[in-house]
Amino acid sequence: MHVQVLCDSASDLNQEMFQQFSVQSLPLKVILNDEEYDDGIDITPKEVYDRMRDGEAPKTAQVSPQTFRETFTALAEKGQPFIYFAFSSELSGTYQTAKMVEQEIKEEYENARFDVIDTKAASLGYGLVILRAAELAKGGASYDEVLELGQYHATHMEHIFTVDDLEYLQRGGRVSRTAAFVGGLLKIKPLLHMEDGKLIPLEKIRGSKKVLKRMLEVMDERGADLQNQRMAISHGDDLERAEQLAEMIRETYGTKEIHIDYVGATIGAHAGPGTIALFFLNDTYK
């Protein structure tokens, strides 16, 4: 029996990708004006960004214990081995909830074979981990092979991103109110990265034109096997800049596969419209 790969909607993969790679995804929640939506199912990222531009402030909620319980139980009852690769535990409580439910299910179904893994990744960085694990699983790889490769990609995944307006990060407590105000006046664009699952400011860059160039330089410093690996770029409703960055990468490194998609509603609610994020491996592609 093949291994079932599970993830949540913070992977920012679209429904078509989930179907193509036989991935089961559990939606996080987006809350707007006291109405709750399933991320990527009941509401699109585009709708969320449009409403943010109109002044609305979305909130998000993790996958519920009940959803995990029902999903894990259904697979355990069938004797289906599965691995749930989770959104970074530093950005959401979803992983901790899944671990709690894991204990319950394993006590009830002693022969169930599954693991809950903290990827320490987000957006399409997380999505790339899922794609690689799912490809392997679909090809008939063993449980241990899927687990090992998924963990390898999670460990070596780089996240480099910038936001268009510091105000959204300020609302989430990522930067101070003063920094957001001054940054807006000076047109300062922050460059951030992920370190052990946390969002960490890397440097400040004046002017949006310089940001993409600097993202490429950071990738050059950190990346490995840049021509052959699959990369990803996610964007907060700014496809033009995402495609511009992709073209710069292709011209510089001859990279064959760059997946572009929206920063989904869960992460976009905190990063805001105009976010551009780049994901790549810092070690050899496997």
UniProtKB/TrEMBL annotation:
Pfam annotation, one family: DegV
UniProt KW keywords: Lipid-binding
Transmembrane regions: none
Keyword DNA damage: no
Keyword Cell division belongs to the record: no
Alphabetized InterPro entries for the sequence: DegV (IPR003797), DegV_C (IPR043168), DegV_domain_contain (IPR050270)
GO molecular function, one term: lipid binding
SUPFAM superfamilies attached to this UniProt entry: DAK1/DegV-like
Reported function: May bind long-chain fatty acids, such as palmitate, and may play a role in lipid transport or fatty acid metabolism.
Protein name: DegV domain-containing protein YitS
